[in-house]
Design brief:
6-stranded mixed β-sheet; alpha/beta; Macro_dom; globular; Appr-1-p processing domain protein; Macro_dom-like; Leucine Aminopeptidase, subunit E, domain 1; binds ligand AR6
Length: about 170
């Protein structure tokens, strides 16, 4: 599937229509990729986020990108891993799905995702990658709207996992 790309690096440097933020339900910032995005975007991003009244797990909301080189930020909330028996896989799939639906609704053609929930939220990386890739893959198979969806991985472990799965898919 050549509309899916793998990139290793800092998502805040990406020149795409939208980057996705792995946020928390408050949407008021935090550590990890969320902290990096707010740092680069500047304080106006937090001002806009304050007006959004938070976001449920598995849902997504959109803001402008301010000082970031992308055009928009899609803030989604992945699940906190509690062992996998309370719906975490479906919630993670929903975070990817909701982000893509919102991007399409705003007519955005290129989107970059971080590895949602695999940092502070402790979702197992292999399973998270399988869910992320299959959810995006299924969306692209049934809908030709998007030009390019990039998985922006940060750490070497996730890079290896994504490379292997994407190479299997051909
Ligand atoms: N660019 C791309 N990926 C990054 C970057 C970056 N600059 N920095 C970290 N990552 P995490 P979560 C990767 O913890 O698990 C925050 O405090 C990182 O290596 O950012 O969904 C929020 O406010 C990891 O693979 O998000 C929430 O409270 C991935 O991003 C909570 O953390 C996700 O790690 C969300 O936890």
């Amino acid at each position: 599937m050549n509309r899916i790309q793998l990139y290793q690096g800092d998502i805040t440097e990406m020149h795409v229509d939208a980057i996705v933020n792995a946020a928390n339900k408050s949407l008021l910032g935090g550590g990890g990729v969320d902290g990096a995005i707010h740092r680069v975007a500047g304080p106006k991003l937090l001002e806009e986020c304050k007006k959004l009244n938070g976001c449920e797990t598995g849902q997504a909301k959109i803001t402008l990108a301010y000082r970031l080189p992308c055009r928009f930020v899609i803030h989604t909330v992945g699940p906190v891993w509690h062992g996998g028996q309370i719906g975490e896989p479906a919630q993670l799939a929903s975070a990817y799905q909701s982000s893509l639906q919102l991007a399409k609704k705003h007519q955005l053609k290129t989107v970059a995702f971080p590895n949602i929930s695999t940092g502070v939220y402790a979702f197992p990386k292999q399973q998270a990658a399988e869910i992320a890739i299959s959810t995006v893959h299924n969306f692209l198979e049934t809908d030709d709207w998007f030009e390019e969806i990039t998985f922006c991985v940060y750490d070497d472990e996730n890079y290896g996992i994504y490379e292997e799965i994407l190479n299997q898919d051909g």
